[in-house]
């Protein structure tokens, strides 16, 4: 076999592996998943969730709206940091290179800090909610309404799970049913 044929075959093989490992688009995931009361289904896998019975609403400034792909929780398409009070000030919370940083040094600790920061791992309930989320302006004051995953984890049909936090810890998996820009 000639070196050109070998190189071409290797390039095709590597290109195929690269293409196969690419994450599906978030919109394709949302369009192909389904919900029931306690279950999300996507790509032949069921994910069990314990969603709060009553919806909650949380209002804050959208300091970060980052797309996310996690192969263990593909339905979690975005991470959104909603802040209020002092945390809405870039001096305290900075978004850089797709990461959220909080700055609490001596200078900031000497000030009276008010408000809080909640990090939502968002599961858009519909394609329409997903499209609103994609267009959410940076720093917009918004109200999220939806249901919190109560025990902080999602278990797939193979028995494996991914652990999140809860509202008290400030990091939560959230089934987003409505976005309102205030």
Mean of residue pLDDT values: 80
Major sheet attributes = 5 strands, antiparallel
Number of helical segments with 4 or more residues: 4
Distance between the termini: 66 Å
Nearest-angstrom radius of gyration?
20 Å
Give the strand content: 35-45%
Question: Major sheet: order of its strands?
Answer: 1-2-3-10-11
Number of strands: 12
Helix content: 10-25%
Describe the 3D structure.
This protein has four helices and twelve strands. It has helices spanning 3-21, 26-31, 106-109, 127-134; strands spanning 33-35, 39-42, 45-48, 56-67, 78-83, 93-96, 99-102, 117-124, 141-148, 153-156, 161-163, 171-181. The protein has a five-stranded antiparallel sheet. The protein has a five-stranded mixed β-barrel with strand order 4-5-8-12-9.
Topology record:
Elements: H1 3-21, H2 26-31, E1 33-35, E2 39-42, E3 45-48, E4 56-67, E5 78-83, E6 93-96, E7 99-102, H3 106-109, E8 117-124, H4 127-134, E9 141-148, E10 153-156, E11 161-163, E12 171-181
Parallel strand pairs: 8-12
Antiparallel strand pairs: 1-2, 2-3, 3-10, 4-5, 4-9, 5-8, 6-7, 9-12, 10-11
Short description:
The chain is an alpha+beta fold. It has 4 helices and 12 strands, in the order ααβββββββαβαββββ. It has a 5-stranded antiparallel sheet with strand order 1-2-3-10-11.
């Amino acid at each position: 076999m000639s070196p050109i044929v070998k190189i071409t075959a290797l390039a095709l093989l590597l290109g195929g592996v690269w293409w196969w490992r690419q994450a599906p688009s978030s919109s394709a995931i949302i369009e192909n998943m389904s919900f029931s009361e306690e279950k999300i289904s996507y790509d032949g896998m069921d994910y069990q969730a314990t969603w709060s019975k009553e919806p909650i609403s949380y209002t804050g400034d959208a300091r970060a709206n980052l797309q996310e792909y996690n192969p263990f929780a593909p339905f979690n398409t975005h991470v959104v940091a909603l802040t209020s009070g002092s945390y809405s000030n870039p001096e305290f919370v900075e978004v850089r290179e797709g990461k959220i940083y909080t700055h609490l040094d001596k200078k900031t600790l000497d000030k009276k800090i008010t408000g809080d920061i909640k990090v939502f791992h968002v599961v858009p309930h519909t394609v329409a909610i997903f499209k609103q989320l994609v267009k959410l302006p940076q720093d917009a004051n918004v109200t999220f309404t939806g249901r919190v995953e109560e025990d902080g984890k999602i278990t797939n049909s193979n028995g494996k799970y991914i652990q999140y936090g809860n509202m008290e810890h400030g990091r939560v998996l959230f089934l987003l049913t409505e976005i309102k820009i205030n």
